[in-house]
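Supplementary Methods, section 5.1.

A reviewer requested that the exact input to the structure prediction be made available. We therefore reproduce it here, unchanged from the version used in the analyses.
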Amino acid sequence: MLVLSRKVGEQIVIDGNIVLTVVEVSGNRIRLGITAPRDKAVVRGELVGFGHDLEACIPATTPTATPSITTSCDVGFSLV
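The structure derived from this sequence is encoded token-by-token as follows.
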């Protein structure tokens, strides 16, 4: 496991197209902003492996698809 220290406003870039931004630090909690391609699922760790239908929450991507905005999903996370 790689452990990095970041301050509010600083970023971590993964694989050139996924960006994690530290938005806020308050006590023992942090808020992260995540920018990722629409075809990548971003899921809280506690939901992984519990049989949630993530495909229903991820917009289909095709070269001619018109981007759609999904504001929430029933598995407990939001796509922004």
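Residues 41-80 form one domain. These observations are discussed further in the main text.
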